[in-house]
Amino acid sequence: MPFHQSGEVSFDLRAFKAGVPRGSVLGPILYLLFTADLPTSESLTTGTYANDTAILAAHSDQKITSIILQTNLNDISNWLKKWRIKANETKSVKFHKQIT
Fold first, then answer.
1. Which domain range does residue 58 map to?
2. Could you give the CA distance from residue 64 to residue 60 in angstroms, rounded to a whole number?
3. How many CB atoms lie within 10 A of CB 8?
4. Does residue 34 belong to any structural domain of this protein?
5. pLDDT at 17
6. Does a structural domain hold residue 47?
């Protein structure tokens, strides 16, 4: 089913799996624009480098730290669903360090 037709030329609607090719000049700029509304919180720090994102939380009570992180992860999960992005679970890790 064509979604646009101009004269004798028509274009079919097709799904695509990924966006910007690796090493493209526009890649980093498009990533920043696309992730500008990534959910954050005043209770944590979000850091990005290239297309990687780290979420950091610190609190004297480990349970509160876990609650802060889980709440933000739930928000991010909803954001991912909204934008139809699949997180790479093999690159997703939890790191915990208790400072004494």
1. 22-91
2. 8
3. 5
4. yes
5. 63
6. yes
As a whole number of angstroms, the distance between CA 97 and CA 58 comes to 10
Residue 55 token pair? 């979420």
The closest alpha carbon to 77, from 63, 68, 87, belongs to 87
Q: What one-letter code names the amino acid at 44?
A: L
The predicted pLDDT at position 91 comes to 84
Strand partners for 11: 4
Give the three-state DSSP class for 94: coil
Q: Which DSSP string corresponds to 25-91?
A: SSHHHHHHHHTTT----TTEEEEEETTEEEEEE--SSHHHHHHHHHHHHHHHHHHHHHTT----GGG
More confident residue, 73 or 11: 73
d(CA 51, CA 43): 23
Residue 51 included in any domain: yes
Asked, for residue 87, whether it belongs to a domain, the answer is yes
Structural domains in the chain (count): 1
Looking at residue 64, what is its pLDDT? 92
